[in-house]
Amino acid sequence: MLKVIRYSAAALLAAIFGLWAHVWFTLAPGQSFADAFGQRLAQVFGQDMQLPSAAGVVQLPPGISLGGAFSLTRQDGVAVTERDYASQWMLIYFGFTFCPDVCPTELGRMADVMDMLGPLAGRVTPVFITIDPERDRPDNLADYVSRFHPQLQGLTGTTEQIAAVARQFRVFYARANSPNTTDYLMDHSSFIYLVGPDNRVRSLFRPDTAVDGMARMIIGQLRATRPTQ
Questions:
Q1: Which of 227, 206, 68, 228 is closest to 217 using CA atoms?
Q2: What residues have CB less than 8 Å from 91, skipping those under 6 apart?
Q3: CA 20 to 30 Å from 190, out of 30, 101, 108, 168?
Q4: pLDDT in tens, 186-198
Q5: Domain-by-domain residue ranges, the chain?
């Protein structure tokens, strides 16, 4: 009986998170999240709704597209845009170098996935985009990303550039402490984005996604598509 309760609780949590993700990624400009979430609950109450699986993969609703153009600066000081990655798949994570736990954990998982891709890893560029451009400049980004994987690139930019790319990927972020101090943390959403050569998100991976499951899904998508020249 206790095992049934545990499974039921896990399924309920997965469903709630799935509904949260659905509302967040379909949120209309100017609409409050609380209102949208309440409306969605009312719409699906008593109805069937396909939610993301407990495996941790978030599937975007039909007609919803994430990703797009960006202009940022790489850890070596070179300006880059989405066109510099046009022939590549990308694994993207948004975070900040002063993050004490979640960001290093997720970047470590990305590094593990890259190692699992074997010869296909050459078609994938792992990317870390900071949501703290005031402190994360190219020099400290270079040191930070080098700790995780040799292919990992770090991108930063102006406050406006970071805000623009965050909107493209529907990333939430905000200072968690007083803006008057330099010793602060950042609140932010935590997904790993699988982005195709067209710079559009194909899948999102939650923090509870098994690394081997991520690798299998990425390998499947890579094998199903021809390399872009």
A1: 206
A2: 110, 113, 114, 124, 125, 126, 127, 192, 193, 194, 195, 218
A3: 30
A4: 999 999 999 999 9
A5: 2-52, 71-223
